Amino acid sequence: MSNKELAGKIRELAKEKNAIILAHNYQVPEVQDIADLTGDSLALSIQASETEADIIIFCGVRFMAETAAIVCPDKKVILPVKNAGCGMADMLNASELKAEKAKYPGIPVVTYVNSTAEVKAESDICCTSANAVQVVKSLKATEVLMTPDKNLAMWAQRHTDKKIHYWSGYCPIHNELTIDQIKKAKAAHPEALLMAHPECVPEVLDMADAVRSTSGMLIFAAESKAKEFIVATEVGLLHQLKKQNPAKQFYAASSEMICKDMKKTGLKELLRALQTEGPVIILPEPIRLRALKAVERMMAVPRD
Ligand code: 13P
Ligand code: SF4
Residue ranges of the alpha helices (H) in the chain? Predict the structure, then answer.
């Protein structure tokens, strides 16, 4: 079946089944193009919580679909490829977090949404790359424990007087980007502004003109007077950047920044998910309820 035929069948079935297709900004172009909504982790969690659809097909990785299942217990949340995971989320489990918390009694735990539902359930509040600083600032405590991303924690530390303790996880894709690669990209494109994701190491963030979530980069690029941008995040975002800004130029900071898990979902997998209505994300209710508290606290933090 051609991509056009697959796309036609997907749209037809989605309508018939009252399903909404959400796609993260790192998904392959054809999946982004067929989705009802594309966005970053925060935007997609909000969309999931507000949708009136009966089925949510989440084109992304497991932690994102789990977040949708946490906020939408009455909906069928489907992750088209069961083993689409996240290297960072795998770096911390609930028992490790319990042991870490014991070292910091009384200190609130701020957990990046790039984590399992079990880890969220052990946390006081969640955050995303779009709101980490606001979430930390919203807490009364003067010390916090941030998990699982050390780079996001170090970034937030620069914007608050609170003492941030952190777990030393990282994104295997963003953490690999070096200042030498940035220097090379800047030498090749001297007029370009550098946009970087807060999962990059601090030395890379020091060189950036803007540190943003993936959707934050889309806003920055659209609003900026600049015509060229170096993009220090997963290469999937380039599709949306180019589509929304046809008169501007975007260059990947490194063509090696590919999250294999984000590329596991294609149109065939999406169609199969709609046809079979699976694989469904099912969370144990006690875990879901505790994780929900952490996600709801995050959603209640005012956005800038
Ligand atoms: P965003 O929430 O900024 O889209 O980031 C998600 C992610 O997985 C980054 O690696
Ligand atoms: Fe996880 Fe990194 Fe992939 Fe984002 S890019 S989903 S943090 S492994």
Answer: 3-16, 29-34, 41-50, 62-71, 94-103, 117-121, 132-138, 150-157, 179-188, 202-206, 214-223, 237-244, 267-276, 285-300
How many CB atoms neighbour CB 304 within 10 A?
6
What is the amino acid identity at position 113? V
Q: Both tokens of residue 278? A: 């699976």
Q: Does the model's pTM come out above 0.90?
A: yes
Atom of ligand 1 nearest to the CA of 86: 8
**For 166, phi and psi rounded to 5 degrees?**
-145, 155
Give the mean pLDDT per block of 10 residues along the chain (304 residues): 95 98 98 97 91 97 97 96 98 98 97 98 97 97 98 98 98 98 98 98 98 97 98 98 98 98 98 98 98 97 80
270 in Cβ contact with 59 (< 8 Å)? yes
- Whether ligand 1 lies within 6 angstroms of the CB of 147 is answered as no
In short, whether 133's Cβ falls inside 6 Å of ligand 2 is no
Residue whose Cα lies nearest atom 1 of ligand 2: it is 86
- Domains in the chain: ranges and CATH: 3-85+262-282 (3.40.50.10800), 89-170 (3.40.50.10800), 179-252 (3.40.50.10800)
